């Protein structure tokens, strides 16, 4: 008995040491997967009722080159088609609009929210991120970003430094990112508050008249973000994170495809003018997240409060509860609540007798709204730790009136139409 | 944001730091925290969601950089 015991003991100690080392480093999976690419892939189909449809594909590769030196590469491609609200109000009669390119027109039936159905774009995005320790308690991560659409180019860099202390139970991080975006829409950028030209687009004077409503071929904006983070392990089962972010956006922040209806005292449209937003936006937010590991699953709760100099404020509550079903399978119900206040220059329409304000936009996305998302994810392991997942979400966005009186006929028309969308995702992770 | 709010944030951060020295676990108690399901990083699902909400709402970022990135907004 004695001899037998002493034979097996060294093996047990070795296994125990290996387990302890992995626990200490907290990188059991990474150590085992040394020098191998770990891929996460996903296909997402997004579809709004009567509006935009999109398909997005992501391939994300992660590789450890040296101890804790990681390279992350991500390729994203998405394609959008469908109709998007052009900003004008519904009318009791049919309305005609000129397409943003100036080539042709489209008509919206009476009582319908005007949607421009020529929304179409394909986008390719590349991201690269390198992460490495600078010392046992300091980690540096830096990356680059490129996104290209037919009429849009976005280039960005970012860097983040994280310092661990208190036996690696607390982490402070400081991050910085800078984006430079260039927009070159087909049909050029409209002159702010100029009237949409409507008429015979085949006439000989059309191009000349349309050009008078155009300011320039392209414009851009820069976005500088600073992110301060603090992560704290509370217990063996609980971890929390607190972030503060400050974002400065400068440049062309107007949507060149959006117009505002100018109505008379009876609510009848007299003119359609291109919107105009301020050239500077400063956003700030505080974010808190906590994860708690129950015996049967993981609760993930987060809250964000955001405010900016456009007087937009928003509350976002996000919750997920991952329920382990055994053998690596899990189901994760998801609920998200979002509520935002309108920008100070948001106007659902303008009235002809009032002076045109310095800035105005009827884009419902900067108006008052509430949105909820309900969904669930189901994932199952297959073949040596690879994972296949399915996710289905329902998104309901309800714009609301932030205190504007509907004039005349507008009182009987739907000015704050809801947006409903379904998105379905299939993801597959493998080595 | 008012000065009082900034002061409140600083006080909150200081209190948190003071209290955090006593929080946490020993290295051998990280079995659950080391699981992928306990990671705070934004995975692929998070990136896809961020892109959707960035396109449909006036808020972005908070958890990570809100940045520019596409013409979808």
Mean pLDDT of chain A: 91
Fraction of residues in H or I helices of chain B: 40-55%
Gap between N and C termini of chain B: 25 Å
Q: Say how many strands of chain B there are.
A: 0
User: Secondary-structure element order of chain A, as H and E?
Assistant: HHEEEEEEEEEEHEEEEEEEEEEEEE
* Oligomeric grouping of the chains: heterodimer
Structural class category of chain B? mainly alpha
What does this structure look like?
- The complex is a heterodimer of chains A (about 425) and B (about 70).
- Chain A is mostly beta strands.
- Chain A has helices at about 1-25, 30, 205-210, and strands spanning about 40-50, 55-65, 70-85, 95-100, 105-110, 115-135, 140-150, 150-165, 170-185, 190, 215, 220-235, 240-250, 260-265, 270-275, 280-295, 295-310, 315-325, 330-340, 350, 370-380, 385-400, 420-430.
- Chain A is elongated and about 70 Å long.
- The model of chain A is unreliable at about 1-35 (pLDDT under 50).
- Chain B contains 2 helices and no strands.
- Chain B is flat.
- The chains are: A mainly beta (about 425), B mainly alpha (about 70).
- At the A-B interface, helix 1, strand 1, strand 2, strand 3 and strand 6 of A face helix 1 and helix 2 of B.
Provide tags for this entry:
heterodimer, A: 431 residues, mainly beta, Porin, 2 domains, 16-stranded antiparallel β-barrel, three-stranded mixed beta sheet, 8% helix, 58% strand, elongated, disordered N terminus, B: 73 residues, mainly alpha, 2 helices, 42% helix, flat
Would you spell out the secondary-structure blueprint of this structure?
The complex is a heterodimer of chains A (431) and B (73).
Chain A: H1 2-25, H2 28-32, E1 38-48, E2 53-66, E3 69-85, E4 95-98, E5 105-108, E6 115-135, E7 138-148, E8 152-165, E9 170-183, E10 189-190, H3 206-211, E11 214-216, E12 219-235, E13 238-251, E14 259-263, E15 269-274, E16 280-293, E17 297-308, E18 313-326, E19 329-340, E20 350-351, E21 369-382, E22 386-399, E23 419-430
Chain B: H1 3-20, H2 44-56
